[in-house]
């Protein structure tokens, strides 16, 4: 055990060096996670103040005077303002808190300043949840808050010690957890503040965008960033049906495809007609840039907060920067019906007249048949037969992208095949468009859910056929069918930089212990995100309704009973009579005194062991050696720090051998 000094303040009223070391260490731990998302200059400024404080613990003359501290304060505020172009928003506010904490470390004159620093450190710890909400970060913050609370315990102890202070702080936190859990579940929740409109930095997130350029999806294929997770109520759809619909690209300018505007579009002439098996599932979206919700094609039922636009894509009215969970039902077999004139024109748009080589290829593939289905089948066979390759690293095609890809390179990623496929069909006067989204996903056998990552990003084609509506065709399946049937091996693909596919494993027996451990942890994180982080107003309302709480009066009763019950139980535990465990050393000594009393030794309640030994030896000189050994062992156990673990056993043996 590390013993602290007998007081936390020295003769001048300043905090003791041990308290300063303890507090500085805890503040360093509190601020450490911010180093990953704060500007280097800001975190460097704090680090300089923190090191200055450490060096000045033993040399107080090194601390800055009032004017220098004022100059440092102006410099810190100016630095925070310059790094974030303001003082409002998540990043700017966090930066100001961290700068203030570093400056306050240089201004400690008494207990009051220690309190201010610790309370400010608690605020800095809370700001970390604005950046990361994982269970590991929650455990880390809980640990460092325990250390901060131990600082307050040490500050208010008459004879402080480090380990007992940590134990006391941990006990206080454990005692508070039940009440905190009750308040978390029952206390009326407020919507989280929309930091994005205040945050000038607007930190970017990777993912699909409303522009599809050659190679854009190939870049995502090397990212393991999680996009969403899906848990089906029953069986999973087969791999060939796991298409998660996103933006629809209809406008082509010769170099890039643009997503069609979803607003002010003419209504579809028909509503989708669904047939076949429906799949019900819970989809948890991670924070993203756009308000897109990637549902399994084609969503048939969804909550009120979602909207299915005229392009059959789901969008949300919630802040896309927040994690959100939705209950959705999709049917992979559907018929969208007719097409309106504006949509037909849009789906036939080309930046210019197709070249002679393109028209010749179309004529060759179409043959004498006029049916679009025949042309589509021949085109897919063309991709399969003519030595086309699937690669993440195709050669650049800056000019005449479609022709270069079809007639020269013949190697590309899914976006190359989908865009070339759509271009050829439009040139043949067949309405077609490119659809972006994700395909496949890795199944977590422990939690029973699919994980879809950026590496699963995909592009496919959609063709309008008379009597069938919009029908999905995936040219990638003709080139690399294993991409669809087996899915992407994200780890190997990122490690090698080349396309890599692996069979989808549904049996835990085929997984290695490392894979099982990883999936177990991913399941823990999923449950944490789903039941704790995603516990919003809607989820609380549903839970309260299940408990029969339908108004604020009942909610108030539940809060009073729950908090009062836990508080009463804790008060009883703390205030009940302290029944100390009997000291085995004193018990043995009392047994020794009882034997001497039977031997005729007279002694009073105030007699110490040495006095008792002298009287006992005078009455029973034949037992003098045994009496001296018993008293010596008792004094060592009771009063000396040099006692050993076996001394108690020796004491009991000697007393047991004493015959009077």
From TrEMBL:
The chain crosses the membrane at residues 37-55, 113-131, 137-154, 166-187, 555-575. Keywords: Membrane, Transmembrane, Transmembrane helix. Residues 406-477 form the Transglutaminase-like domain. It holds the Pfam family TgpA_N. The keyword Transmembrane helix applies. The keyword Transmembrane applies. InterPro entries: Bact_TGase-like, Papain-like_cys_pep_sf, TgpA-like_C, TgpA_N, Transglutaminase-like. Coiled coil: none annotated. This is Transglutaminase. It comes from Methylomonas koyamae.
């Amino acid at each position: 055990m590390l013993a602290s000094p007998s007081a936390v303040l020295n003769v001048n009223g300043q905090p003791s060096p041990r308290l300063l070391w303890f507090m500085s260490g805890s503040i360093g731990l509190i601020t450490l996670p911010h180093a990953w998302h704060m500007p280097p200059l800001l975190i460097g400024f704090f680090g300089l103040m923190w090191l200055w404080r450490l060096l000045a613990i033993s040399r107080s003359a090194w601390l800055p005077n009032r004017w220098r501290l004022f100059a440092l304060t102006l410099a810190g505020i100016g630095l925070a303002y310059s790094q974030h172009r303001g003082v409002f928003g998540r990043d700017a506010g966090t930066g100001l808190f961290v700068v203030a904490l570093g400056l306050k470390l240089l201004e400690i004159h008494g207990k009051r300043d220690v309190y201010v620093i610790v309370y400010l450190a608690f605020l800095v710890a809370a700001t970390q949840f604005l950046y990361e909400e994982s269970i590991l970060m929650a455990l880390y913050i809980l640990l460092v808050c325990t250390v901060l609370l131990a600082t307050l315990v040490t500050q208010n102890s008459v004879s402080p010690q480090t380990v007992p202070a940590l134990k006391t702080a941990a006990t206080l936190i454990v005692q508070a957890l039940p009440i905190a859990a009750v308040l978390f579940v029952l206390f009326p929740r407020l919507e989280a503040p929309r930091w994005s409109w205040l945050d000038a930095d607007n930190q970017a997130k990777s993912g699909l965008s409303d522009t599809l350029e050659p190679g854009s999806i190939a870049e995502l294929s090397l990212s393991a960033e999680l996009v969403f997770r899906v848990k089906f109520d029953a069986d999973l759809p087969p791999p060939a049906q796991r298409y998660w619909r996103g933006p629809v690209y209809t406008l082509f300018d010769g170099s890039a495809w643009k997503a069609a505007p979803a607003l002010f579009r003419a209504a579809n002439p028909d509503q989708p007609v669904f047939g076949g098996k429906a799949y019900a599932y819970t989809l948890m979206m991670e924070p993203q840039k756009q308000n897109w919700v990637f549902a399994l094609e084609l969503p048939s039922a969804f909550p009120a907060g979602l909207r299915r636009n005229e392009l059959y894509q789901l969008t949300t009215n919630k802040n896309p920067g927040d994690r959100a969970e939705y209950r959705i039902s999709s049917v992979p077999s559907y018929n969208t019906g007719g097409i309106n004139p504006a949509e037909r024109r849009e789906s036939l748009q080309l930046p210019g007249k197709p070249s002679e080589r393109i028209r010749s290829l179309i004529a060759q593939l179409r043959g004498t048949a006029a049916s679009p289905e025949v042309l589509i089948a021949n085109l897919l066979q063309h991709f399969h037969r003519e030595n086309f390759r699937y690669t993440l690293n195709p050669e650049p095609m800056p000019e005449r992208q479609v022709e270069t890809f079809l007639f020269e390179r013949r190697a590309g990623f899914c976006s190359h095949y989908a865009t070339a496929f759509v271009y050829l069909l439009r040139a043949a006067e067949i309405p077609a468009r490119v659809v972006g989204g994700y395909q496949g996903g890795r199944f977590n056998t422990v939690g029973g859910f699919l994980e879809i990552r950026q590496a699963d990003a995909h592009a496919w084609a959609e063709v309008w056929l008379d009597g069938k509506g919009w029908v999905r065709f995936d040219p990638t399946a003709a080139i690399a069918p294993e991409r669809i049937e087996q899915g992407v091996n994200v780890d190997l693909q990122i490690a090698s930089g080349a396309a890599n596919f692996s069979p989808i494993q549904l049996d835990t027996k085929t997984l290695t212990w490392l894979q099982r451990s990883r999936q177990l942890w991913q399941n823990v994180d999923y449950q944490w995100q789903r039941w704790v982080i995603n516990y919003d107003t809607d989820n609380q309302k549903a839970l309260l309704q299940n408990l029969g709480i339908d108004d604020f009066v009942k909610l108030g009763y539940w809060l009073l009973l729950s908090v009062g019950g836990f508080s009463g139980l804790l008060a009883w535990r703390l205030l009940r009579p302290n029944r100390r465990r009997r000291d085995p050393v004193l018990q043995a000594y009392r047994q020794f005194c009882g034997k001497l009393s039977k031997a005729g030794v007279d002694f009073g309640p105030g007699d110490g062991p040495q006095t008792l030994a002298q009287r006992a030896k005078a009455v029973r000189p034949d037992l003098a050696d045994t009496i001296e050994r018993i008293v010596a062992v008792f004094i060592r156990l009771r009063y000396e720090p040099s006692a050993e673990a076996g001394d108690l056993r020796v004491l009991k043996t000697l007393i047991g051998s004493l015959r009077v």
